[in-house]
Amino acid sequence: MNRTVHLIVNPFGGTQDNRALAHQALSTLNGLGIKVNVDFTECKGHAMKLACSLSYAPEKTICGLGGDGTMHEIINGIMCRPSEEKMHVALLPGGTGNSFLEDVGVFKFNDALRMIIRGNYKNIDLFKIQLDDSYHFAFNVCGWGMFASANAAAESLRCIKKIRYHAAGLWEIIRNRSQQAKLTFDSQTIEGDFSLIVASNTRNVGKSMMLSPSAKFDDGKLDLTFLKQSGRWALMRLFQKLPKGNHIHEPGISCIQCREFEIVALKTTLWNLDGEIYSGKRAKVTVLPHALSVCI
What is residue 139's DSSP assignment? Predict the structure, then answer.
């Protein structure tokens, strides 16, 4: 069977020249007899439209070259397709954050390219998110509160490249804004002021931040982390321990596994889905076990 890779490239993401990386991937894969088609995204949402509308072929892999946001768009495009026309997905690192690849131990472009050449696939879980009246899918993270506002701040700090997530996190700690919400999971309801509520499908989020050390992307569960309103020093301790996942032992932090949860905020606020920012008041998040075939 002749393999085809359709490469969807975000030319604006990350810290490298993604056009040059796309040329490298094209040359390498073609040299091995793998047919490659290339599209460059032109605006936000373009990758999703491409993934939704590409012609179906069972041997085709839709491969993003970008970060978590590019992968997010491609997956949402794939999930718009009829179930019998969903295709494999792969990712080449070309963004500031590549959380999924970090989870499988791939940090370099050439290593990710070799993974695509081998062509091994695994079904992973996805989150289905009903945000007010709209539906979205996420493969990495669904976050609210400080976790969403910090990501929004990081978007305005792209000029400082890889450290932008850490700088945005420190800024949000200084601001220390909590928000009122009702959180429901496993027939339990908690109401009050929260600093953050975030569900993870992968261990890592952003750039090398191990939010959920026990998370697995194929266990049919989500790892839910939440923190009620806290002081700046408590938040700083958590932030310092986040890269290695040691924050989970700090007082006040709650970490559980479940299959769905719901957040009802007091007002319309920001939400972080795989690093992409949305707005809404109410979200219901459900795990879809083994919903997507991904190259690993």
Answer: S
Percentage above 90 pLDDT, the chain = 76
What is the residue extent of each domain of the chain? 4-119, 130-289
Q: Which amino acid is at 136?
A: H
Phi then psi dihedrals of residue 243, to 5 deg: -55, -35
Mean pLDDT on 253-265 = 97
**Phi and psi at residue 34, to the nearest 5°:** -95, 120
The residue behind tokens 């266990």 is 219
**CATH number listed for the domain at residues 130-289:** 2.60.200.40
How big is the CA angle at 69 (ends 66 and 70), to the nearest 5 degrees?
A: 45
> In angstroms, how far is the first alpha carbon of the chain from the final one?
20
Instruction: Tell me the two tokens of residue 14.
Output: 């990350």
pLDDT at 14: 67
Report the SS3 class of residue 159.
helix
Amino acid at 141: V
Residue (of 128, 79, 134, 48) closest to 294 by Cα position = 79
pLDDT for residue 15: 67
What span, in angstroms and rounded, lies between the C-alpha atoms of 161 and 281? 31
pLDDT at residue 27, as a whole number = 96
The model's pTM: 0.93
Which residue in this structure is represented by tokens 């919400």? 181
Give dist(CA 249, CA 72) in Å, integer: 30
* CATH 2.30.30.100 is right for the domain spanning 4-119: no
